[in-house]
Amino acid sequence: MGKAVEADLTLQQQALSGTITNELAFPLTNCLLAYDRWVYRIESIEPGKPIRIDSTLRRSELKTLLTGQHVVSDTKKHDYHQEATPYDPSSRDASYVLQTMMFFEAAGGRRYTGLTNGYQRRVDLSELLNAGRAVLIAAVPQQHHGAELLRDGRPLDDTNANRVTFYRFVLPIERAERPTNH
C-alpha cells in the first residue's frame, strides 16, 4: 500500500503552507492539523482532492483548543484574564478524551488534567510538534473502523456504542529558504 496521505507542507513566517491530499478511498473528517503550538481545523479531506493549507485557513493555539481557554472579564479589577475549562476525567466523549491523550503534554499534562499519562504515554504525540513535524488527526467513517468488538466470538450490539476511530498521520515540514543578504 502507498501513502495514505500525501503532504507538501512548508513553514513560512511561522505558518504552514502547502497541500495535503487524502490518498484513501474514503473521506477524512473532523480533521485537526497540529504543528508547534498551532492547530488548523479542517472539516473534511475528500479522497484524491488536495486541500490548500495557507493564510486563509484559520489557526488557533492548540492548548486553547484542548483546554477550552477563554477570556474572562473581572469587573472588580477592571481587567481580563485567560481561564481554562477544567478537564472532566469522567467524560464519556471519546473525541474529547482521545484528543487530550494524543496531545497530553501540549494541553498542560498533569497540571491541566490532574492525571498521569504513564499507561498511555505512547499515544501522546506532543513531542513531535516540537521536533519539526506536523500531526494530522482525522475521524473516519464507521465502516472503516480499525477493529470489531467481540464478546464470546460474536459482535457486540452497537446500538448504544459511542465508537470513533481516529487516524493519525505524522507529516514532514520543509522550512522555507530565508533570503540571504549580499
What do you see in this structure?
It contains five helices and 13 strands. The N and C termini lie far apart (about 45 Å). It is about 15% helix and about 35% strand. A five-stranded antiparallel sheet has the order 6-4-3-9-12. A four-stranded mixed sheet has the order 5-2-1-13, with no helix packed on it. The mean pLDDT is about 85. By secondary structure, the chain is α+β, with helices and mostly antiparallel strands.
Mean pLDDT across the residues is: 87
Overall SS class? alpha+beta
Overall shape: it is globular
Largest sheet: 5 strands, antiparallel
- Strand percentage lies at 35-45%
Spell the H/E element sequence. Answer: EEEEEEHEEHHHHEEEEE
Oligomer: single chain
Short account of what is shown:
It contains 5 helices and 13 strands. By secondary structure, it is α+β, with helices and mostly antiparallel strands.
Key terms:
alpha+beta, 182 residues, 15% helix
Q: Which secondary structure elements does this structure contain, and how are they paired or packed?
A:
Blueprint: E1 5-12, E2 15-22, E3 28-35, E4 38-45, E5 51-53, E6 59-61, H1 62-67, E7 70-74, E8 79-83, H2 94-102, H3 104-107, H4 109-113, H5 126-129, E9 133-139, E10 150-151, E11 154-155, E12 166-172, E13 174-175
Parallel strand pairs: 1-13
Antiparallel strand pairs: 1-2, 2-5, 3-4, 3-9, 4-6, 7-8, 9-12, 10-11
